[in-house]
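Teaching note: in complex prediction, the entire set of molecules is handled at once rather than each chain in isolation. The prompt given to students was simply: 'Predict the structure of this complex.' The entities are:
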Amino acid sequence: MSLKAAERAHLLALADDEHMVGARHTNWIGLGPFLEEDLAFCSIAQDELGHAIGLYEILLADDPDRNVADLDEFAMLRAAADYRSCWLAEVECSDWNDSLVRHWLYDRAESLRWGALTCCSDGRVAALANRALREETFHLDHAQRFMSRVASVDVTGKIAASIKRLFPIARGLWDELATGDPVGMDFASRSVGELAVEWEALITDDLKKWGVDITLPDGNVATDQAHRTIRSDGFGAFHADLQRVILLDTSAVW
Amino acid sequence: MKTYEVFLKKVGRDEFRHAGALEAPDSEMALMYASETHARRAEGAEMWLVERGNVLVADAAILAVNDDKPHRHNDGGRVAARRKEQRDGDER
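The expected output is the structure of the full assembly:
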């Protein structure tokens, strides 16, 4: 084992976020507002799942009790309490406007998180971060371009309502796992606290740039999320859905 | 929504080739979508997009004039047939 406990926890939180948000995004396959958008959004979902796989592989290769062959089981069959995803990644967004706002809030944060890992002392993590960040360029472009076009003409107020609903949940994304020692600067070049401040400034700048006059809610649900150890409402059904196929035959080799 | 025609070119001396079309609300979004709809498996290293409304479309009648001009098909077939005929004659 070469990763310290805090580093493992840091990577697991990112991995589970990528897994959950990628899986949630895939709900839109075939349902996007038009074909080109459908394809783009599903590509983003695939990329996020790819990031999760990359991180799970690193974590499993570093785990004395497991190996990379356990990836599917580790990804899908853990007990709900053992996941460390944030609520923003987990919550159901059954309206397109909610999904779009989640995508923007999440990818704004994800780019910062991967950016802090590009010079990671662990070469495997640094290589994955550099690859993920290249894909993030497209994700962020997509989120900003789409949002800039709909948020500025939000006559129905749906986008504003989604921001008000999801922004407090999104703040919980920055609740670092409580593992004692924080992750060192050699592992992640910027602390979670620093990234959270920059993220909020970027979100505020985006809204200003798009002419969206909205007061961001003050609330912070991070404490409710209790360091990512408590699952959000609806996680049970979502998790059961994720497991539906793998549980058809747990001995099958996929 | 507008329709855009997509052209891709691979690395090297290949020419740009028509890859298909897509719909997008504007040019910026069209460029973004095109990379996923037509080049998501690295089908090209360079890409052109042309809004369909900007394509100059020829009158089909102008092209139809050239339908029946076999003498312009200088693929050498008639010369080859004649030489074969001569060879066969010599052998006899």
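Point out the following to students. The interface with chain A takes residues 1, 22-25, 28-29, 32-33, 35-37, 40 of chain B (CB under 8 Å). The radius of gyration of chain B is 22 Å.
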